[in-house]
Amino acid sequence: MIRTRFAPxxxxxxxxxxxxxxxxxxxxxxxxxGKFILRIEDTDVERSTPEAVQAILDGMxxxxxxxxxxxxxxxxxxxxxxxxxxxxxxxxxxxxxxxSREELEAMRESQxxxxxxxxxxxxxxxxxxxxxxxxxxxxxxxxxxxxxxHGVVVWDDLVKGRITISNQELDxxxxxxxxxxxxxxxxxxxxxxxxxxxxxxxxxxxxxNTPRQINLLQALGATIPQYAHLSMILGDDGQKLSKRHxxxxxxxxxxxxxxxxxxxxxxxxxxxxxxxxxxFSMQQFCQWFDLDHITPSAAQFNTEKLNWLNAHYIKxxxxxxxxxxxxxxxxxxxVMVQDVDLAAALELYKERANNLNELANAVAxxxxxxxxxxxxxxxxxxxxxxxxxxxxxxxxxxxxxxTANIHxxxxxxVTNNGLKFPKIAMPLRVMVxxxxxxxxxxxxxxxxxxxxxxxxxxxxLV
Length: 462
Ligand code: GLU
Hints:
With 462 residues, this protein is of the alpha/beta class. It folds into 4 domains: 1-67 and 231-316, HUPs (Rossmann fold), CATH 3.40.50.620; 80-176, Glutamyl-tRNA Synthetase, Domain 3 (Glutamyl-tRNA Synthetase, domain 3, Alpha-Beta Complex), CATH 3.90.800.10; 320-366; 374-458, Arc Repressor Mutant, subunit A (Orthogonal Bundle). The chain is built from 19 helices and 12 strands. Residues 7-9, 41, 188, 202, 206 line the site of glutamic acid. Glutamic acid (GLU) binds at residues 7-9, 41, 188, 202, 206.
């Protein structure tokens, strides 16, 4: 049984990199009929906030990354961590260290001066035949892991290939602080073990933690999961992705009018490929996804491609589905949907929208008073077309209100007067929509109630 997890620290929103990690872990579990677990790593109490937890949960929900277990909160698992620490102390795989801050600083200084990598020198490390100093009573000890001193840690990273780290590079790192709170690497290990994680898929900023975590797992007699370290995501400009690049929080994409399908499809291709396939559903992705086709090199963000996918998924969506979202966007602008069928309007407008905000703006005039600028009226309602428009309005009041009939009436007015189509369509557009950009004006008018549409026009045709 495959068991993967996403383990964010709630110190900020769910960013694009985190969302991709979550997506890959989720897809891997789905592909193998396994379980996907959400674990909130909130032990950094200074930096973790309930708002960030909520932002992560919202982001996961919006993207539809459903988890089978969790969310588990590390802060609620303290008793379990303490239990494992007690077991390790009893087993001799961890020990108390009473070195003061000053002593550690001095140790560091002298190692640096000798040109060595600073590391804990094992002062309090118990060894067969070694006599430890008497424990000072006034110093609360930290607890250190008794890391193996020889040999190497090796793992076959599913993205980066074989990685070998000498144990001499690692030291006896602290697993519990002097106030008894467990440290980051320790909690991750206990959780991955307890939660039966089979593949750890995470950002490659954690590669340095992995040998320590493997040694700890080994000391606990745990099975070692496989590791897949994903390369980082760079911005359009090749620099590390940051706020400078615009939206980095997934919920910001929601606000900016992106569909989750577009963001997911985009993220799926960020460092993973299936031949030349660019556009695919999440169902398809879950069937295709594997860890062999993840590129070890950094992926570069491409806003244009994301925008293109967004426009694609908007076109693919039905007006009815889009209406669910757009109604909320309109309400946020104080525009209440009434009379004109929003789903039908969106069906007409979705072809030209790049995002949902654009779509909401484009249809807003159906529900708000139309106020064309004097300039537009003057430009398009010229004296020569006024009588023609008046006659057309009269004609329109007699027809059955369909796109085809409206089109026919406009067409007749155009030909009978030897004009070009825009000469009539433009003033209509200005009067009906308040602007000069809209899909075909007959279709737009047909969405409105005949009487209301004509009343709107007539007031300009005095
Ligand atoms: N909590 C870590 C982070 O947010 C991830 C730890 C892990 O995946 O092992 O970066």
